[in-house]
Amino acid sequence: MASLHFVYSVSTRTVAEVESELSPSTIHGADLRFHGVVRNLEEGCPISGIDYSHYESMALNELRRIGESMAGDFPEHQALVHHVVGFVPAGEASLLIRVQTTHSASAFEISREYLRRIKLTVPVWKKPVFEEDSPVPSP
Amino acid sequence: MASLHFVYSVSTRTVAEVESELSPSTIHGADLRFHGVVRNLEEGCPISGIDYSHYESMALNELRRIGESMAGDFPEHQALVHHVVGFVPAGEASLLIRVQTTHSASAFEISREYLRRIKLTVPVWKKPVFEEDSPVPSP
């Protein structure tokens, strides 16, 4: 899903795949990419990964709403958000937030604020897959 | 140049090359990558890119010093800094700052602080190459 300044998606595509298709910009001096990575421990117990599920229409609506409110709050930026659903093995990213700004200072603040709003309201659920479980096969 | 928690380099290698070799981590939930990108305008005039030069021993010493002081100020992180020297065309990155932290909140603050310190003290000079000039060939 895309607008001129905000692109967002929730799918089984990996962050690496999405990132490999990002095009460069000659007008933005800062290109900041936050990867939310699955760790190998959940509450101290070893896990092989996390199985993410979502309520699609709500998740996309919420991302769109966040993009609109961020465009109002921080007019001078472009952003892309991708959340992976399905099984994500430990060490791989489940979330990508890319923020491009003309100058660098604001990119950090804007990315952090995307992350805060996404964590707060986007309905994506996490089910840790413990090492003794069979991992859910990645589609 | 490397330590357990801080890797830094200044060379003609592109940010894309350096980034393609980054290995994943299963203990850091946040992996933040700042790209400082060459824009196509310098003081309003179109440029084809920037030719970066540096005083090698001073630049590396200064990066090492920044890494040491950052490790003291923010003990819980890993970082990599790469600055490209030579000609960097508009739209490509000349600086990569990668910061990994266990949890996400601190990654933004730490990256921003690396950028601030690097800009303040690392001796790398910029010569814009205007569109009418012949670009300096990239090695």
Find the biggest chain interface: A-B, 31 and 31 residues
Distance from N terminus to C terminus of chain A (CA atoms, Å) equals 21 Å
Tell me the name of the CATH class of chain A.
Alpha Beta
Q: Report the oligomer.
A: homodimer
Q: Provide the residue-averaged pLDDT of chain A.
A: 92
Overall structural class of chain A, as computed from helix and strand content, comes to: alpha+beta
What's the order of the H and E elements of chain A? EHEEEHEEEHE
Sheet of most strands of chain A: 4 strands, mixed
Number of separate helices of chain A: 3
Under the CATH scheme, which architecture of chain A would be assigned?
A: Alpha-Beta Complex
Rg of chain A:
16 Å
Uncertain spans of chain A: none
Q: What can you see in these coordinates?
A:
- 2 copies of one chain form a homodimer.
- The first copy, chain A, has 3 helices and 8 strands, in the order βαβββαβββαβ.
- Chain A has 139 residues and is of the alpha+beta class.
- A 4-stranded mixed beta sheet of chain A has the order 1-5-7-2. In chain A, strands 3, 4, 6 and 8 form a 4-stranded antiparallel beta sheet that branches.
- In chain A, strand 3 and strand 4 (45-54) form a beta hairpin.
- The longest helix of chain A is centred in the middle third of the chain and has 18 residues, at 56-73.
- The mean pLDDT of chain A is 92.
- The A-B interface holds A 24-41, 90-93, 102, 104-105, 107-109, 111-112, 115 and B 24-41, 90-93, 102, 104-105, 107-109, 111-112, 115.
- Strand 2 of chain A pairs antiparallel with strand 2 (30-37) of chain B.
